[in-house]
């Protein structure tokens, strides 16, 4: 039986869920904003929740859902007819309590030319979509947003992201804020489809994506893994929760805060090997995304194991590999640190940036520690998004755009120099 409603009937269910977790999952924030629910208003065979993600250097995974069985086939090509080529993939589904998902289709297409617009059609549908591949070389523009959710603020953030004409979106966890209500995953997929079907979205997990319920549903990340398949196998990872990829001279690493990260874990060993294989001649920039911040002067989410213990385990790996930037979410506010290592300013350490302010329903984390630590350069509690423009092998411009009366306002910006171009820093 498929659960069609938009809400579970009782607060008691949510209280039961909170009792099954520690405080990280039930943090009491300022009053929430209204959650938007986007209904499916087409027939059951129509594609919905379309999104794309990069696979390797020259392929793209097309993902979509239908309510009834349809072919997992993509017709695509460089002309609007989308008839030049075709590829077939796989169809899966999943169950979660009383919910049964639709037909989840995943098809990998390619090889594709860089910096090129492709048109595509899904299954038996005649509707045509299009996407643009990333450039082969610099410059490249990343949109960056965390803790996106689906509220009125999310709508504003998505509009501003679309106006930025980014080449690829990077999202450090907490996608839909479905929080066990699986229909909200469907709503989220429909909400982001206009952008996510046109540029690759590369994502990793946050605490709101775990969705593990003691006794009722023991498997974590069920919806995330089924709906948002990332190219983990291509990077030698054994899990969809952590992976890496190269794009336009940048090596991007996605880590999982809510899976094992101890030195004897699969994630740690994979990260260690991945960092050793980076060719800075090919990818002079290295960017890491992880949900729970390792540096944080906000009063929210202090002292959590996912932050403190993961930093203890992995910070040395990132420092020794000359990682340039670490993007995080979780804290619903913005904060940029100087280059830092072991809690002190270090010109050869990464710049840590918290951007967990995409538009979640829980409200902003408005209280910061006072006095402000010297390593914290800029902090502000506002919804918004970031843009990382990697201009060349040595320079990139980071800017954070806050949502101010529905208009994007650049509130913080800084030029960054890659550590691979700094002769004082040696890997």
From TrEMBL:
From the UniProt record, list the reaction(s) this protein catalyses: a phosphate monoester + H2O = an alcohol + phosphate
Short name of any one Pfam family annotated for the protein: Pur_ac_phosph_N
EC no.?
3.1.3.2
**Position of the signal peptide:** 1-26
Boundaries of each Purple acid phosphatase N-terminal domain copy?
Answer: 47-133
Q: List the residue ranges forming a coiled coil, or say none.
A: none
Which Gene Ontology terms cover its molecular function? acid phosphatase activity; metal ion binding
Q: What class of enzyme is it?
A: hydrolase
User: Which InterPro entries does the annotation name?
Assistant: Calcineurin-like_PHP, Metallo-depent_PP-like, MPP_PAP, PAPs-like, PAPs_C, PAPs_N, Purple_acid_Pase-like_N
Q: Which CDD domains does the protein's record reference?
A: MPP_PAPs
Residue ranges of domain Calcineurin-like phosphoesterase in the record:
142-334
Task: Report the residue ranges that make up the Purple acid phosphatase C-terminal domain in this protein.
Answer: 349-406
Q: Which SUPFAM superfamilies match?
A: Metallo-dependent phosphatases, Purple acid phosphatase, N-terminal domain
Entry keywords, A to Z: Glycoprotein, Hydrolase, Signal, Zinc
Name the needed cofactors: Fe cation; Zn(2+)
Family recorded in the similarity comment: Belongs to the metallophosphoesterase superfamily. Purple acid phosphatase family.
Q: What is this protein called?
A: Purple acid phosphatase
Q: Which organism is it from?
A: Medicago truncatula (Barrel medic)
Q: Report which gene this protein is encoded by.
A: 11432966
């Amino acid at each position: 039986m498929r659960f069609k409603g938009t809400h579970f009937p009782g607060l008691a269910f949510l209280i039961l869920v909170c009792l099954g977790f520690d405080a990280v999952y039930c943090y009491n924030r300022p009053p929430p904003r209204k959650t938007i629910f986007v209904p499916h208003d087409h027939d059951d065979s129509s594609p919905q929740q379309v999104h794309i993600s990069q696979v390797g250097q020259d392929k793209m995974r097309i993902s979509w859902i239908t309510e009834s069985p349809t072919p997992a086939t993509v017709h695509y090509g460089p002309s609007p007819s989308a008839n030049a080529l075709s590829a077939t993939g796989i169809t899966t589904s999943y169950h979660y309590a009383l919910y049964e998902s639709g037909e989840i289709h995943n098809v990998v297409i390619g090889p594709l030319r860089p910096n090129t617009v492709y048109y595509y059609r899904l299954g038996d549908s005649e509707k045509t979509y299009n996407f643009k591949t990333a450039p082969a070389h610099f410059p490249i523009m990343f949109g960056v947003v965390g803790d996106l959710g689906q509220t009125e603020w999310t709508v504003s953030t998505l509009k501003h992201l679309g106006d930025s004409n980014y080449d690829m979106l990077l999202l450090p966890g907490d996608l839909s804020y479905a929080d066990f209500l699986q229909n909200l995953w469907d709503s989220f997929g429909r909400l982001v489809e206009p952008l996510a079907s046109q540029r690759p979205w590369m994502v990793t997990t946050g605490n709101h994506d775990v969705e593990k319920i003691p006794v009722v549903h023991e498997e974590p990340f069920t919806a995330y893994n089924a709906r948002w398949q990332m190219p983990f196998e291509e990077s030698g990872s054994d899990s969809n929760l952590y992976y890496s990829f190269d794009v336009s001279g940048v090596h991007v690493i996605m880590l999982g805060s809510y899976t094992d990260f101890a030195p004897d874990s699969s994630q740690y060993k994979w990260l260690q090997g991945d960092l050793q294989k980076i060719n800075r001649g090919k990818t002079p920039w290295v960017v890491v995304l992880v949900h729970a911040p390792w540096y944080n002067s906000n009063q929210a989410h202090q002292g959590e194991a996912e932050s403190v213990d993961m930093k203890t385990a992995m910070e040395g790996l990132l420092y020794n590999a000359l990682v340039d930037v670490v993007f995080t979410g979780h804290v619903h506010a913005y904060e940029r640190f100087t280059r830092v290592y072991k809690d002190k300013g270090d010109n050869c350490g990464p710049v840590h940036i918290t951007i967990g302010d995409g538009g979640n329903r829980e409200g902003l984390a408005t209280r910061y520690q006072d006095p402000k630590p010297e390593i914290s350069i800029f902090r502000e509690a506002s919804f918004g998004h970031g843009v990382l423009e990697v201009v060349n092998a040595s320079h990139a411009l980071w800017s954070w755009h806050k949502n101010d009366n529905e208009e994007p306002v650049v509130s913080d910006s800084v030029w960054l120099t890659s550590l691979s171009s700094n002769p004082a820093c040696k890997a």
